[in-house]
Design brief:
This protein is an all-alpha fold. It has seven helices and no strands.
């Protein structure tokens, strides 16, 4: 059985892979559509929005891994790992799409990864139900965030829109999974603070 130190070493290794982009998806979905008719401005906007989404997936990896590092319930830890694997697919998809659009990932990713991992650990230390409540609220806010992106991406950018829609559906399923596992709803002030932190992240990574 892996010791706590073993898990820490595994999480550090995974973190380095996430930040370096040295990760591969378990699902390599075919997102249909062509970029030939997109204007430079449409591509630029989509690339910036996908950069925000990529950073969100970097944060998701850190949050899940932080929570699983301190989670004692093996069943819950397995669920966290499964969700992290699905989020890893999102990470690779968004990174590839950014490249297709001629954009770049955020320079702030290392900072957000470290901060998110610490938040994940703190959430995990509050107890399983509250940790799941944090996960559930995070996924709900991400779902709303992705819906907002669909309103902004050009209807002609089928590849980006299809990708965002797929990600949104899976974020919703993660929130539902957490609820079924016994997530404890977070207090309103905590949910409001999470929304504020998310807004800071999205505005910063849209530009940097």
């Amino acid at each position: 059985m892996a010791t706590f130190l073993d898990r820490i070493i595994e999480e550090v290794d995974q973190g380095l892979k996430v930040l370096s982009g040295a990760v591969s998806p378990k699902r390599d979905l075919d997102f249909h559509g062509s970029d030939e008719n997109l204007s430079d401005e449409q591509k630029k906007l989509s690339a910036k929005l996908m950069r925000v989404n990529h950073t969100g997936e970097v944060c998701a990896q850190a949050l899940y891994l932080g929570q699983s590092t301190v989670e004692k319930n093996l069943e819950i830890r397995s669920e966290l790992t499964q969700s992290a694997d699905e989020e890893l697919d999102h990470l690779v998809w968004t990174q590839r799409r950014i490249g297709e659009l001629g954009g770049r990932t955020s320079l702030l990713n290392p900072l957000f990864y470290v901060g998110s991992f610490a938040i994940g650990v703190m959430a995990g230390l509050t107890g399983t139900q509250r940790s799941l409540g944090f996960l559930q609220e995070t996924e709900r806010q991400v779902e709303a965030h992705l819906t907002g992106h669909l309103d902004r991406v050009s209807v002609e950018d089928e590849r980006t829109r299809t990708m965002i829609a797929q990600m949104r559906d899976e974020e919703r399923s993660h929130a539902t999974r957490a609820e079924h596992l016994g997530a404890e709803p977070l207090p309103k002030p905590v949910r409001s603070m999470m929304r504020l932190m998310s807004k800071v992240m999205t505005q910063a990574t849209f530009r940097i």
